[in-house]
Amino acid sequence: MSKNVCLILVVVLMSQASRACDDNIEEEELARQQSDEYFARAYGFTPETWNALYHKPSLGLQDAVDASPYEGRTLFKRLQSSNNPFKKYFNRDQEDNENNGRFAFAGLGANLVNTGLFNNRYTPANTWRPLVTLAKRIPISVNPNFNSPLGSFDTCTSNAGEAGICTSGSVCSLFGGRPSGPCDQGQVCCINVINSCGSIVTLNNTYWQTPPTALRSPCTLTVRMDPKFIEQSSKPICQIRLDFVSFTTSQPTAGTCTDTFQVGGVSNEVPTICGDNRGQHMYLHVPQSVNKPTDVQLIFNFASGTTISRSWSIKIAMLPCGATYLAPIDCLQYFTSTRGRVSSFNWQDVAGARQLNNQNYNMCFRTELISAQKATQMCLSVCSATEGDAFSITTPPAVLLVASLNTGFALANTADADEAAINSAVGTTYTDQSRGNGITVATCLYDYLLIPGGRDANNVEADRFCGNKLNPSPGTVKRVPACPNVEWQRVFIPGAATDVQVCTAIRPFKLTYQTDGQETAVGAATNTIRALADVSNTGFCLEYQEN
């Protein structure tokens, strides 16, 4: 009898010791997941411990309130929700009714899944997995990691190079993911792929890919962030990063997209794009709501009567508020390396017009450390191109400076126009005040790339750049003979015929790209400065280097 009592006491003591160890492990794991280092790994980014110009890793309360908008998002500077022009594409009432009964059991199911009662936490050699099929019957509709400190959804890379999350095989199957390669502790690298129109996604590192069936228009995807579960995670989502692994639709017609990709439900301005955008990315700023889920819509519309094969694979990464790797508040694109390539949407090294109309966005560059010192300047050079033009933004005019009683404006002859068309251009307009009533013509007024404080090796400086070369040269006025017994005429030839490196010392480093809504000529009218029609503009591709 005494032996039995002793045996029971031993079992009880071992159970209590095990629980104590488990509690310590849970507390350590929970503390680890509340740290910036954990979220940096879980969301696929590496935080910088030094204080870059765009981001201050640690802000006090007053510092956070007074932070500059160029220093990234803080918890005190969240953007407010804006009107959603795409609301007609979504029936939120229907979606809420469908999911109403599911959230009640989401927390219970998430805890059961992640605490290992029926998941794949057992070693691969152990084939006894109790209740493994029960996971598929529990209606979980949100990321289970929010409710369980034991579920560490760290980021991972599959054997094929795709980004995923580390989780158990059962959880991966539960969300329709595809296991691809191992993670620690018997977990798998789960690649979550959505290949349908009209779906809702809640998981980080999800890929939205072309549906296997015939495309419908519009084809939409909703990225949903629910405050019920955000509160428990203490890390609400402030931004979504889209990476266009592949992206092919029809090319624009005279700069205007017939197939379109648009974004709704965000607080920053996102341009409509189309064409070929593989390798591009966007940062979407998410408005915050404490009463209802925040939905961001990704929307494709396709023109009829075209036979082009449309396809895409878009990686969707959800970035938590307060992280040091968020994009600055006014930046659609954000680059975080000392050197790299930046290009306009739809630019590729192919022949033909590629520039898109109605583009207006900022490209920002984190100030990096160079030999333990912050970079003091950023230099830009055109990309090497074999088929297309690496820099082609609007067509520069050659202007015959002739004073008259009417418009005081006339185009130069064909030879002069051809010379100007291959040159660079800067500034907004050119005005000759030397004779008559003054002659004004647009240069980089409607389409341009803004490089604040841009200058070449000879300290020739300009801010607005356009034309068919990257060069801050202001251009020249030359004299040409008109006809016998008539005075020499004066012709303005903008810019120069060669590309040069342009550097800026204005920090934080930022470029702004602007195009208007047409590629046709702008005629003379009241309060309108005339401009030539654009011819085969491609946009730009630049190599950047911080020094």
From TrEMBL:
Keywords: Signal. Residues 1-20 form the signal peptide. The keyword Signal applies. Pfam families: CUB_animal. Residues 328-546 form the CUB domain. InterPro entries: CUB_metazoa. PANTHER family: CUB DOMAIN-CONTAINING PROTEIN, INTRAFLAGELLAR TRANSPORT PROTEIN 122 FAMILY PROTEIN-RELATED. This is CUB domain-containing protein. It comes from Daphnia magna. The lineage of its organism: Eukaryota, Metazoa, Ecdysozoa, Arthropoda, Crustacea.
